[in-house]
Amino acid sequence: MANRLSKIVTRGGDKGETSLADGARLPKDDPRVALLGDVDELNSWIGVVAAHVTHEALGKLLQDVQHDLFDLGGALSFPGAPLLSERHVSRLDAAAGALNAELPPLKEFILPGGAPALAFAHVARTVCRRVERAMAAFYRTAPEAAHALSYLNRLSDVLFIAARIEAKHKGVEEIYWRKENALSTEG
After folding, report:
1. 116-139 and 146-170 helices cross at what angle (nearest 10)?
2. Is 181 inside any structural domain?
3. Cys-Cys link to 159, which of 21, 38, 116, 125 (CB 3.0-4.6 A)?
């Protein structure tokens, strides 16, 4: 395999701009460039989750998700390119259904934590929600982002389910929100 990146330090971004794959230069705070960075951050958090999970099918799914997010970042660097597909969304739907079928019904809200894998899954979920909000804003000007927006919405659900799956798989008790621990608005 040939070297794809022979030079890492280019100094091309030293003045606050970066290049897209089509050669266009954009400010680093451009919404498209910011979204690229957000997707990269999410992919990194998915990697943290994947490094901590012990449920084999979940680990495989997270690796597939990392490939999808890498592809999404690549597509974002080509203005007008399709950003994921219905097949990507359908695969996450199916995975969420299969994983959720392993779980007992949810009786209360769950607080993030309980074990590192669970906490990391919840951090990834909240980062995913932020990326989804950025994608929603981007979608208003780029209709090719429709499937990516749906994908991110499903992915945040998958990450919530991932925390629950790991809790069950590791025998860790989930931490439930308890109303009696909430501060009263009275007196």
Report:
1. 170
2. no
3. 125
Q: CATH number for the domain including 69?
A: 1.20.1200.10
Number of Cβ within a 10 Å radius of residue 45: 19
Cα 58 to Cα 7, 34, 92, 114, distances in angstroms? 35, 29, 11, 18
CB atoms within 10 A of CB 99: 19
Rounded CA gap, 187 and 116, in Å? Answer: 37
User: pLDDT of 160-182, one tens digit each?
Assistant: 999 999 999 999 988 888 877 77
Per the structure, the count of domains in the chain is 1
pLDDT, tens digit, 9 for 90 and up, residues 120-150: 999 999 999 999 999 999 999 988 899 999 9
Hey, CA dihedral for 109, 62, 55, 114, is it positive or negative?
Answer: negative
C-alpha–C-alpha distance, residues 13 and 161, integer Å: 39
Helices 56-76 and 86-100 pack at an angle, to 10 degrees, of 160
